[in-house]
């Protein structure tokens, strides 16, 4: 029902979508997972043409990718360092037969951005700076990791072709090279749409 509604462009409340997840994952939603309406808006910008390959940098429980794959004709890839979250997202995609999505268990610094056309980023590395609401205790936080992952993403984005689109949510501009310009903004500046000039 949830994914059929998204395909038909019917609004789905976050409280309903989050019921796809076990309780401990639902409890993290407010702080860590993209709201459905935000994911829809971001995905429609990134997958502006069919078959665009969209990478979610730190896919968490897969919410952005699952919503994006359901409401666009893009192909969504979510890279996530926590294996249990990758497994959970994959199970949901398989159970609901969402075929234009794939979840990859890896660290972002193992990913070559030239394999993708567009990128989504929900301040994934901030967990290394603000440890007030951790996803779990499995991945130790280190300030240095924030800077090294940020540098990696920025250097990968520097190598992308002109016209590449990026959407950031609750993020600064640290990951965005100067060659990108701000195309549009929404949610009082929290959701930003970038395009390489
Ligand atoms: C704020 S959550 C966003 C989840 C998802 N993008 C969404 O919008 O629903 C950030 C996720 O990034 C993951 N993450 C953080 N650093 C990472 C890294 N270096 N490589 C892969 N995933 C990472 C975290 O484990 C967490 O699940």
Produce the secondary structure layout:
Blueprint: H1 2-7, H2 14-17, H3 23-26, H4 29-32, H5 36-46, E1 53-57, H6 63-71, E2 75-80, H7 83-95, E3 101-105, E4 118-121, H8 143-158, E5 165-169, E6 180-186, E7 191-196
Parallel strand pairs: 1-2, 1-4, 2-3, 4-5
Antiparallel strand pairs: 5-7, 6-7
Helix pairs in contact: 5-6
The structure holds S-adenosylmethionine (SAM).
Short summary:
The protein is α/β, with parallel strands linked by helices and 197 residues long. The protein is built from eight helices and seven strands; from the N terminus they run αααααβαβαββαβββ.
Task: Describe it.
With 197 residues, this protein is an alpha/beta fold. It has a single domain (2-196), classed as Vaccinia Virus protein VP39 (Rossmann fold, 3-Layer(aba) Sandwich), CATH 3.40.50. The protein is 34% helix and 19% strand. It has eight helices and seven strands. The chain has helices at 2-7, 14-17, 23-26, 29-32, 36-46, 63-71, 83-95, 143-158, and strands spanning 53-57, 75-80, 101-105, 118-121, 165-169, 180-186, 191-196. It has a seven-stranded mixed β-sheet with strand order 3-2-1-4-5-7-6, covered by helices on one side. β2 (75-80), α7 and β3 (101-105) form a beta-alpha-beta unit. α5 (36-46) crosses α6 (63-71). The longest helix is centred in the C-terminal third of the chain and has 16 residues, at 143-158. It is globular. It starts with a helix and ends with a strand. The model has no long low-confidence stretch (mean pLDDT 97). The structure holds S-adenosylmethionine (SAM). Residues 32-34, 56, 58-60, 63-64, 79-82, 85, 107-108, 122-125, 127, 135, 149 line the site of S-adenosylmethionine. S-adenosylmethionine (SAM) binds next to α6 and β2.
């Amino acid at each position: 029902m949830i994914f059929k509604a998204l395909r038909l462009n019917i609004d789905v409340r976050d409280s309903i979508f989050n019921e796809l997840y076990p309780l401990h994952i639902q409890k993290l939603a407010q702080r860590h997972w993209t709201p459905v309406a935000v994911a829809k808006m971001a995905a429609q910008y990134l997958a502006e043409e069919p078959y665009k390959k969209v990478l979610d940098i730190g896919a968490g429980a897969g919410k952005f990718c699952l919503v994006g794959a359901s409401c666009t004709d893009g192909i969504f890839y979510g890279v996530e360092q926590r294996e249990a979250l990758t497994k959970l997202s994959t199970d949901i995609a398989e159970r609901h037969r969402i075929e234009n999505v794939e979840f990859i268990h890896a660290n972002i610094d193992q990913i070559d951005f030239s394999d993708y056309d567009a990128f989504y980023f929900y301040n994934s590395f901030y967990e290394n700076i603000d440890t007030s609401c951790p996803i779990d205790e499995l991945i130790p936080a280190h300030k240095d990791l924030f800077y090294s992952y940020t540098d990696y993403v920025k250097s990968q984005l520097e190598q992308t072709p002109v016209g590449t689109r990026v959407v950031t949510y609750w993020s600064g501009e640290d990951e965005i090279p100067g060659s990108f310009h701000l195309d549009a903004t929404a949610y009082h500046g929290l959701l930003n749409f970038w395009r390489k000039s």
